[in-house]
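A quick word before the example. In earlier lectures we treated sequence and structure as two separate objects. From today on, think of them as two lines of the same record. Here is Integral membrane protein written that way.
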Amino acid sequence: MTDGAVPAQGPVTRSSVLRVGAATVVSALCGYAVLYLAARDLEPAGFSVFAVFWGAFGLFAGAANGLLQESTREVRDAQRVETGHGPHTNPMRLAAGVAVVAALAIAGTSPLWAGHVFADLRLLSVALLSAGLAGFCLHATLLGVLAGVDRWTGYGTLIVGDAAMRVIVATATFMVGWGLGGYLWATVAGSFAWLALLLASAPTRAAARLLTPGTAATFLRGAGHSIAAAGASAVLIMGFPVLLKATSAELGATGGVVILAVTLTRAPLLVPLTAMQGNLIAHFVDAREHPGAGAKRLGGFIALRSLVGPTLLTVAFGGVAVLIAGLAGPWLLRTAFGPDYVAGGALLAWLTTAAIVIALLTLTGAATVAAAQQRAYAAGWIGATLASALLLLLPLDLETRTVVALTCGPLVGIVVHLTALSRVPPRITV
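And the structure line, produced from the sequence above:
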């Protein structure tokens, strides 16, 4: 049973993809702007300190994206299926509880790990990480609810608001010379953009009041699997600097260059895919519908077929990105960020190839969530992260083991996801 004031508008349309796509372009440009300002304002060693905090917040925020995935699927299904008069829950209220628990967990456990992760401004880093994560739990859940009911304009507005608030704080930091502390504030500045959208938009407030079928325990159980998987994915995507630091004796200037190169080469693919998780899950949920009782035998085929279009687009776009990174990447890096940031074309091309593999893992993961296979989703991402972490321990130079870990580790998760999808029955409609 859902709020009739916010009806689902049908299958994911090209216009909705374009709207969210435009928002992700703006978000990506804002992300590049923050990284550019930080890299220009801080020397490579200082940038590596900022990048670790950026990665730490990205790791926890990425885990919170499990709330986006679960709320999208729950709301999308609730809009399409008669749910009766059983127990119901409100995703936003549950997210508020998760936000409080997450913030307390970060602050309470910080004496055990903060000294190993944050080399400077430790107390400020922990405080901002706790508050930022709490805000992002509600941010991610609201994105999921909006995706579930096809409120793509609000979805895109929230994405842009988050990114714009970050770049505003980073620009102010650069202009007044605030230094490292200002860029830490910029990292979490967008975590409360959801509150501004709620205050400004009546349709968004209506969406936030939606109920989904089932108990709070049912929702949190599904969200728990999604959060575990999203957390593992965040280690490879946003939290990779933390993983790299944990498996390296010292990062130094070389580490700062490698982290920047990894971030820049994956952003063109992974920023849009991450921002469009709502579109992807809604698309895969819709694809599961197939008329006729005989469709049950085709469940795995239908689930895998829905991946073909997004996969071809990802590979095609990624191939172009590999060529650009290999041929023009070294010059672009030096020109944009200064002579201290030097990386070869081969390294940048391989890192872009690794980004394609992670992007494909993101696609198979979204399809697995849509098929309500949360355990397989979690197993795939956790397996990929563990494999990548083990590969980072190889006795190779920093650049080589980074490429090997980011290219080969995600293949483990892709295999797990595809195996689960091949066994999924469709939702039958008659």
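Notice the following. The longest helix spans residues 44-80. We will return to this example when we discuss secondary structure assignment.
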